[in-house]
Amino acid sequence: MTPDNLRPPLLQTMGLGKTYTLPRRQLWQAPPQVVALQDVDLTVYSGRNVGIVGESGSGKSTLARLAMALDKPTTGQVMWNGQAVSAMSGPALRAARRDCQMVFQDPYGSLDPRMTVERIVAEPLQALSR
């Protein structure tokens, strides 16, 4: 196996940050902001496993959403196979997502209890064939 430093990274984040603006509490005040991520650098090579561990509210899900381009970063950049995710067109982004899988923490937020297991498993496969 080739050492990681000789291969290009599969996923890389550089200076990644995300700030959310909350609704105004009063008309004459600026809306409050919450910093969910600040200056996150991460490098993942093909064939490697990475676990993100942290307390509730530490930004784990935000990091995953930014890496999957489900949300846009406030600062920094996400690279997938050496290409900036923010620069990917719709078809290129869909192609990149075929190589990824995100498992949400809350199964009730991810799985529809009205669907059969067969439909749940078939749905992403059908989406990939489009």
Question: What's this entry about, in short?
Answer:
This protein has 130 residues and is of the alpha+beta class. The chain has helices spanning 60-67, 90-97, 107-110, 117-128, and strands at 11-21, 33-44, 75-80, 83-84.
Annotation keywords:
25% helix, globular, 130 residues
How would you sum up the major sheet?
Answer: 4 strands, antiparallel
- The stretches of 5 or more residues where confidence is low (pLDDT under 50) are none
Fraction of residues in H or I helices:
10-25%
How many helix segments? 4
Care to count the β-strands?
4
Strand order across the biggest sheet? 2-1-3-4
Overall pLDDT: 85
Give the helices and strands as they follow along the chain: EEHEEHHH
Tell me the strand percentage band.
Answer: 15-25%
Terminal residue distance: 35 Å
> Overall 3D geometry?
globular
Q: What Rg is obtained from the alpha carbons, in whole angstroms?
A: 18 Å
| SS-based class | alpha+beta
Q: Can you tell me about this structure?
A:
- By secondary structure, this protein is of the alpha+beta class.
- 25% of the residues lie in helices and 24% in strands.
- The protein has a four-stranded antiparallel beta sheet, covered by helices on one side.
- The longest helix has 12 residues.
- It is globular, with a radius of gyration of 18 Å.
- The protein starts with 10 loop residues before the first strand and ends with a helix.
- The mean pLDDT is 85.
